[in-house]
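hey m, so remember when u said the tokens were messed up on ur end? i reran from scratch. heres the input so u can diff it against urs
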Amino acid sequence: MAKDEKEMFIMGSVKQIGSKKITSKRKERKRLRYDYSFQGQNICRQAFLIINDCTEKVLKNINRHLNDIGAVPREHRNTGKKPHHALKYEDIHNAITFIVNYAAEVGMPQPEAPRGSDGIPPIFLPSSDTKKGIHERYIASCQGTDVRALKISSFEEVWLKCVPYIRISKPRDDVCQRCECLRKQVIDAVTEEEKLTVTELFHKHLEDARRERSHYRTCVENSVKEMSNWEGGELTNVHYTFDFAQHFQLPHHSRQMGPTYFVQLRRVQVFGVRIDGLSRQMNYVIDEDQTIGQDGTLTNGPNAVISMLDHALTENGFGERKCFLHADNCSGQNKNQYMLGYLCWRVMTGRHEEIEYSMQIPGHTRCLVDSGFAHIRKLFRRSDVDSVGQFHTLINKSAATNEAVPFQRAAWKWRNWKSFLSSQFRAVKGIRRFHHFRVTADDPWTVYLKERIDGVEKPMSIRKRGATPFDATELPEEIIPPGLTLERQQYLYRNVRPYVRPAHQDELCPTPAEE
């Protein structure tokens, strides 16, 4: 029974004896007498208190309320009133103003809001800051003024509810090098002119990143819209995104044993190619003995990247004549003469008619392929994985969009694309400053370059002297993985095998083969 219901029941069980408030001597009656009943029987006051689980003070207050106001629910006298120590609008506004101004001074704003948020771009404060330290600065700024200072709990609550987009960055967060340098220059600026100059550069950099991000989102949206209405015709907006994930170490257990943190476990690389129009991601799994180099080396070079990308476009493409590619801004993997030569080779041999290849500004390159990696990593942390086969199963289970592609020479091979392409194509001078590349079948020896999405396109021939067109059936020679060295095999057998479950020891850490 609720409190109000209980009190109303007590009021119905109490009967006042006599209704006169004035005594026979014309004086105000000080004490009133009441009869108490239970199930139609009059009982004493003490029994009534025990039966109704009520105290003397509460019963006295109920009787006074019944006598003064009547049989209506009681209300606390402070109902609808603000306490004297309640926060006022000015107090909250001053705290928010301090947080916003502090973030404008030392924070690093982002050009775009993350997916699934309220659309406000976040501002990251330095990871060395803490809310307690910022609150101490706030207290110091309030001293000597008429501004009321909020306590730490109210300060944090106001921060969380009013400006949640201002966050303290974590030490592991990836930040843009350019943003970080400009932010430090703003802090270290002495004169107003220096601060205004650096602020303008900072604003321009963020605007460039925002436009590049907007272009990426437009490509994805156009691809999704075209795929949703596709009925077998020609496609012109197919969009692919590819990138490497951080390597995984096997064996892995949700309850990881301490000594494994000091052992060089078996490393597995994952390269993701995502078809954004279908929300499908192929994750190429490369074990340590399947890489181009020995002991897991040369995994991220042009030969490896182009080999896996070529397999994805050939086996999982839609026969489209035009496509869009987005990749990480890494010169060693994606932005080099071999990747541009490969794209020219595709249009030259009739595999595509036009390809647009774009990269976002470094430090602002979050793409949908990273979400697929996040699903894998999330499930990996709470799973036991003792073999590469179990890792394939984990990838397929991590999300409906994820698909594991194991290395099998019958399906796809490593090829020597560097030697194959370097004889025909030359490097682009100053390639690092360009972020957009376009090749067409009309002139397959020319690459059209742009520094920004809204910049002027500049044609540049990358044809070497004496180069001849490729034959459509000609492919680079295959590279056979050299496998693990005997020293690495012995290390895995001695130091890693004891932590692998017996059923998978021969698969992950087999007996070393004699040379």
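this time it looks ok to me. The first strand starts at residue 14 and ends at 17. if urs says something different then somethings off w ur setup not the seq
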